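Q: I'm a student working through a structural biology exercise. My instructor gave each of us a protein and asked us to get a predicted structure, then write a short paragraph describing it. Mine is Leucine-rich repeat-containing protein 41. I'm not confident about reading structure output yet, so if you can add a plain explanation after the tokens, that would really help. Here is the sequence I was given:
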Amino acid sequence: MSVLVEALRRLFLDPGCSLTALSVSHVSGHTHLMSVLRACPTLQSLCLEICPPADTNTRRPQPRVTENRGDDLLNTKYSFYFSPIGSNPSLKVLKLEDINLSDCHQEILQFLERSVLEELSFRDCRLLDKCAVKKHFLLPFVEALKGISSLRTLMLAQNRLATSAIEMAELFSGCRPSKITKLDLSSNFILPAELLEFAQLLETYRPVQRLTLDLRFNPLDRDPEVKGQALRKLIPYCNILTDDWDSRSTMADHISVM
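A: Happy to help. First, here is the predicted structure for Leucine-rich repeat-containing protein 41. I'll explain a few features afterward.
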């Protein structure tokens, strides 16, 4: 990796360098992130998949990405085994995947307060795993998201939201509703009754922008009649992505709430 970083550094010293996007998988160690950012000061898109060390049983501190490097970086995706939060104030797109962020609620909220994001993805980030009362995080989280006027895409797949998915309807409430046009709630064990309550709130709030709503891989087949009621209420406001997933013939839904 050090050889690659040195090669990148030399490449970016060349005035004719036109590289704007870089993707590297199976990187070992958090320090390489800062090395790459230092070596590539004008990079616009970075995807690093940082893998855990061989001995994952040893308890290690959970470092966070707090340095401000590469102000031109517009699009970054981190895939870590620990819990970082990006802090680049110029970020337009932030995608975090398969990270335990259950202990990072304050950092998330602080980051969102000064964000100019257009797209945010927390996929399989265990956001609510340590919440005794889930609303205590979700309500300020939703308010922080509503404060980002530039945000258009929010992806929360595989976060075990379940009944808490109802709270996401609050994005479109009040005097400053969110301008989000794509909301991904797939694989969150949302049941038909919960979807109906979400739909009723959305019907009340009436989002200004038409919403693309991803509901795939939720056990909506548990009550087809209630599912139908919910979808009928959502159709005037949403382009719905759904499926015919048979939750009773698979263990995926069970695993999602373990």
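A: Here are two points you could use in your paragraph. Residues 92-258 form a domain with the Leucine-rich repeat, LRR (right-handed beta-alpha superhelix) fold (CATH 3.80.10.10). The CA atoms of residues 161 and 177 lie 21 Å apart. It's a good idea to check both against the output above yourself.
Q: Great, thank you!
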